[in-house]
Amino acid sequence: MTVHARHPLAPLTATELQDTVAVVRRAEAVAVDARFVWCALDEPTKQEVLELDTAAMPLERRALCAVYECQERQTKLVTVSLTGQKVVHVELVSKGEAQILNAEWFNDAAAIKRDPKFQEALLRRGVTDLDMVRVEPWPAGNFGTDLDRTGRRLGRGVAYVVERPGDNPYTRPIENLVAVIDRDTGEVVDLLDGEAVPLPADPGRYDSTGSVRHLAPLRITQPSGTGFDVSDGRVRWGPWRLRVSMHPLEGLVLHDIRYDDAGRERPIIYRVSVAEMVVPYGSTSINHWWKNAFDIGECGLGKAAVSLELGCDCLGEITYVDVDMLDEDGSIYTMARAICLHEEDYGVLWRHKDVVTGVTEVRRSRRLVLSAFATVGNYDYGFFWYLYLDGTIQAEVKLTGVILAQATALGSRPRHANPVAPGLAGPHHQHLFGFRIDFFLDGPNNTVYEVDAVAEPFSESNPHGTAFVEQRTRLDRESDAARFAAPERARSWLVTNQNSRNVCGEPVGYRLIPTHAAALLAQPESPVSRRAGFATRHLWVTAFDRHERRPAGDFPNQHAGGDGLPRWVDADRALVDTDIVLWHTAGSTHFARPEDFPVMPCDYIGFTLKPSGFFNRNPALDLAAPNG
């Protein structure tokens, strides 16, 4: 037996990934033609990790792989013990499809272009040069049709015209033409061919505007070096302690977040990540009504991550983390500079001038930034986590890239899209991110309260009508805890630990403050609502179960729906003084603007986690003065 001295949550190395592939193939656990869709650390149980200091032996290292067997048309989950060098479990996936393979994106595009009926549809639109046609495959979704019930592994494809290298393909869509393809056979099984619409004229280039605006150089230096260190996923910065890794599906994951409170490392969050996201389109046109991409469950944010560039994606004194990944053929590759860590000045943290003595005390804020970018088709997503010196944790997603657009007849204005250029409109759509926050606030026994600001009516105790109260409602069971944000009530959700008290004698707490709450606008009976039930609420709270990781289920690709959070909460488990998980939906409802064309400036969504009685006083009082 191999002894592993690394931390049990440390990311898989290239050697461990190679060992995983070798063990799977040696055991003949999958077919010869099987493709490795993704492979990640099979994390030990929370209890095992928390008891690590007292464990007599290092914990077993395991890898979990999703594998697609092409000839058999089936997906398997294979668990490998790296410690024992053997396959310990194989599970056949019965519902839903594996995430789309990298090879399928390219093969599907080529197969659709070869299809005679698709070529005929292009000719009717005056498109004669196939070399100028770019086909973009999409997930097929599931709409309960006869075709959906065949069990085929399906995809959909739309097309664009690109006349010159560097043209923006998304600005010249071939409207009202969609091919449905069997990904396994390469056969086009359906063709949606509607009324022809003229191609928009603008090539939508964004690499040059003819004139360039130059700004004075901005340089950020730290002559004494950075204030943090990272080693094998372990990060230490000021009072913060945590682990960072890249999951092939969820992308950036933070583990075991702790705050050093006067020498006592206090746990706050055991694990947090974007566990699923969905981008549903609100247009009824042929090219768009079926679009509702699950960028984790159908693609994989970690698989779509990109290498970052100094001076472009990151500015300042940067530390990068490379990530070893398993390719679908079983080979290993290293994604250089996949994760970025750096410090940022963030203005004034606290300040006060004593008007009598004239003495002013100021302390500046600084934050640690952990970030990664992923490109999924036309959109680019930046995932940022900020840790502040006062105990605040902030999640932020930066949305940029190129909007999908639909061609329109000149002078017309579609009902479900906004004009962005002559003959081009951006369909209404949403970006909804499902965050999974596994709290461990000073221990496992936590409770959640919904907190509202409520105005009191005129009364003998409120004669001037100015009083309002903080109304707390305890969320006792899962059936009570599917909630909406209420900005008019300044609604937040407070996680407490009744067994840990602050200096005021009250339970310690951390508050989830929704800052970009958005919920799915599709009708409750719609196919996308059945598949993305998690996005119909801003908050869910569940009792911890290590198998409940992704709010739309593990395999939402072509799933009929009903999996994930809506199914889990049917158990109606108790939530008081227990190990709980918060699931928060944050997002953007995007009504496109001309300013989003031809490339979209960053839009920002996220939320904040703020200490609320967790500390006995301002934890940043010990900072040195800026000039001290």
Structure explained in plain terms:
By secondary structure, this protein is mostly beta strands. It has helices spanning 14-26, 46-50, 102-114, 116-124, 295-299, 527-531, 565-568, and strands at residues 35-41, 62-69, 74-81, 86-92, 133-139, 154-161, 177-182, 187-193, 228-231, 234-237, 240-247, 251-261, 264-280, 292-294, 319-326, 332-353, 360-376, 379-388, 393-401, 406-407, 417-421, 424-427, 429-439, 447-455, 468-474, 492-501, 507-514, 539-543, 580-590, 600-611. The strands form five sheets. It has a ten-stranded antiparallel β-sheet with strand order 15-16-17-18-19-30-27-26-24-25. It is globular, with a radius of gyration of 26 Å.
User: What is the helix tally?
Assistant: 7
Strand order of the largest sheet: 15-16-17-18-19-30-27-26-24-25
Looking at how many chains there are and whether they match, the oligomeric state comes to single chain
* Radius of gyration over C-alpha positions, nearest whole angstrom: 26 Å
